[in-house]
Amino acid sequence: xxxxxxxxxxxxxxxxxxxxxxxxxxxxxxxxxxxxxxxxxxxxxxxxxxxxxxxxxxxxxxxxxxxxxxxxxxxxxxxxxxxxxxxxxxxxxxxxxxxxxxxxxxxxxxxxxxxxxxxxxxxxxxxxxxxxxxxxxxxxxxxxxxxxxxxxxxxxxxxxxx
Length: 162
Description:
By secondary structure, this protein is an all-alpha fold. The chain contains seven helices and two strands.
């Protein structure tokens, strides 16, 4: 929720709010032209995702899976920002994915540090595909919930009506 709030993702309620749906001048495709403090904050903001996914779900203890999930998560946020007058940049996509990778490597370092000599090998006993993809389903549902259900203007009206 905090990542969605901080990034200001677009919602279905922002479609039609502005004069044009997508504004080309707000899309920045050339990566790493200027590095700013926001880029470092994007890395820090997404590190918990890279740390917590493999911590909670054993089947996500693969760098490939975590990087792919982090990239897709960041891409969904960046594409949704096209709807609400926020800039969509490849820098954000790169930095968010980098943050997920760093979080994953921190997890793996700590996991190896504390469980390296553990004789109990963890096995994945899940055979049902929906359970194996539980984390991805949660991320998709959380994004869809924010995109389709969250309406900040409606909530603001409720709070301001006396």
